[in-house]
């Protein structure tokens, strides 16, 4: 831990001395594990190092990371985007969805740990630097009012607010509406996810003029198949948005980009598990 003692130019600023004394009396701790950290709201070196940041090389459209050369198709696209082009132009994620990132995103999404939003937003701002710079307005993926009542907050809206503050961009936190409830997408295939979210979103009529003719950056916490992002992008474009990009905190690895042998091995394991359960 490094103590943040005041610089010489700050010797006569009491708040800097107060912070230094507070760091001695109450040392900052890691937001994930509780061990000592360099500053409040940060992670310790071990938790930070366990995260898997996503970046190049990746699909120029959906942002799916390429681990091997065979995964990249013509023009830098993944095969999935060539087979079924999404309505959004670019999607980027800050972190891969794994054991380390789950310790951040799951408590943030389901455990009232809204203080994680600032940390996740900083990581998203690095991954989506270009998207944020080119965006005219930020719009979060909405929750249905029933789920919002039970959870008490929309995690995507909190991220959009934090990102808007960091990038000095307006955020329309109520720009989209979830017109109907949808079942959890966990465990569903890509086709089932698309069917589940079809027609589930709409643009709030009072906000349509604020997105017409503008480049919209859609914000969410987790991206898996991209079905939710596709559905939201379609209604935003129908409302007059010139283009839609997507920025999320974590991305679940796309099984379509895995080695064929690994896919077969996982399918064999699923078959084994099904037979054992029956």
CATH class of the largest domain: Alpha Beta
By CATH, the topology of the largest domain is Rossmann fold
Average the pLDDT over all residues and give the rounded result. Answer: 82
Biggest sheet character = 4 strands, parallel
How many structural domains? Answer: 2
Structural class from helices and strands?
A: alpha/beta
Tally of helical segments: 11
Strand order of the largest sheet: 1-6-5-2
Q: Per DSSP, what share of the residues sits in E-state strands of 2 or more residues? A: 5-15%
Sequence of secondary-structure elements: HHHEHHHEHHEHEEHEH
Name the CATH architecture of the largest domain.
3-Layer(aba) Sandwich
Rg, please?
Answer: 21 Å
Low-confidence stretches: 263-278
Kindly report how far apart the N and C termini lie: 53 Å
Shape: globular
Number of strands: 6
User: What share of residues is helical?
Assistant: 25-40%
In short:
The protein is of the alpha/beta class and 278 residues long. It contains eleven helices and six strands. The protein is globular.
Write up what this structure looks like.
This protein has 2 domains: 8-40, no CATH class; 51-257, Rossmann fold, CATH 3.40.50.2020. Helix content is 40%, strand content 13%. It has 11 helices and 6 strands. Helix 10 (227-238) links the parallel strand 5 (215-223) and strand 6. Helix 9 packs parallel to helix 10 (227-238). The longest helix is centred in the C-terminal third of the chain and has 18 residues, at 260-277. Residues 263-278 have low confidence and may be disordered.
């Amino acid at each position: 831990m490094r103590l943040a003692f005041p610089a010489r130019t700050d010797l006569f600023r009491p708040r800097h001395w107060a912070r230094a004394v507070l760091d001695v009396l109450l040392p900052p701790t890691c937001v994930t594990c509780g061990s000592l950290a360099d500053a409040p709201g940060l992670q310790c070196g071990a938790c930070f190092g366990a995260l898997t940041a996503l970046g190049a090389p990746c699909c120029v459209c959906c942002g799916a990371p390429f681990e091997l050369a065979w995964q990249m198709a013509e023009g830098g696209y993944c095969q999935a985007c060539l087979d079924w082009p999404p309505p959004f132009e670019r999607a980027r994620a800050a972190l891969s969805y794994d054991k380390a990132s789950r310790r951040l995103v799951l408590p943030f999404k389901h455990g009232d740990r809204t203080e994680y939003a600032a940390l996740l937003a900083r990581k998203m701002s690095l991954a989506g630097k270009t998207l944020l710079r080119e965006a005219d307005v930020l719009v979060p993926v909405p929750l249905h009012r029933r789920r919002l009542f039970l959870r008490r907050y929309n995690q995507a809206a909190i991220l959009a607010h934090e990102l808007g503050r960091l990038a000095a961009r307006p955020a329309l936190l109520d720009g989209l509406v979830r017109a109907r409830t949808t079942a959890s997408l966990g465990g569903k295939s890509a086709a089932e996810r698309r069917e589940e979210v079809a027609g589930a979103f709409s643009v709030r009529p009072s906000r349509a003029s604020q997105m017409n003719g503008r480049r919209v950056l859609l914000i969410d916490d987790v991206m898996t198949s991209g079905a939710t992002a596709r559905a939201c992008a379609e209604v935003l474009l129908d409302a007059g948005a010139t283009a839609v990009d997507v920025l999320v905190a974590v991305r679940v690895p796309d099984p379509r980009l895995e080695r064929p042998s690994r896919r077969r091995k996982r399918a064999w394991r699923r078959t084994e598990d099904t037979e054992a359960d029956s």
